[in-house]
């Protein structure tokens, strides 16, 4: 097991890049850019809810074993 964990910056960047890439592809194939943006915003909002519901504070190594 790794003794260190990052702050999620790399994961956030990769997810954002994929969202942009997928959104641009959808627009290229005729999707309405405003609706693509609204869909992304709705998805992010729901994902944040799920993450908050399933997360818990970690105070030490014993909390993650």
From TrEMBL:
<keyword id="KW-0143">Chaperone</keyword>
<protein>
    <submittedName>
        <fullName>Uncharacterized protein</fullName>
    </submittedName>
</protein>
<dbReference type="GO" id="GO:0005524">
    <property type="term" value="F:ATP binding"/>
</dbReference>
<dbReference type="InterPro" id="IPR002423">
    <property type="entry name" value="Cpn60/GroEL/TCP-1"/>
</dbReference>
<dbReference type="GO" id="GO:0042026">
    <property type="term" value="P:protein refolding"/>
</dbReference>
<dbReference type="Pfam" id="PF00118">
    <property type="entry name" value="Cpn60_TCP1"/>
</dbReference>
<comment type="similarity">
    <text>Belongs to the chaperonin (HSP60) family.</text>
</comment>
<dbReference type="InterPro" id="IPR001844">
    <property type="entry name" value="Cpn60/GroEL"/>
</dbReference>
<dbReference type="GO" id="GO:0140662">
    <property type="term" value="F:ATP-dependent protein folding chaperone"/>
</dbReference>
<dbReference type="InterPro" id="IPR027413">
    <property type="entry name" value="GROEL-like_equatorial_sf"/>
</dbReference>
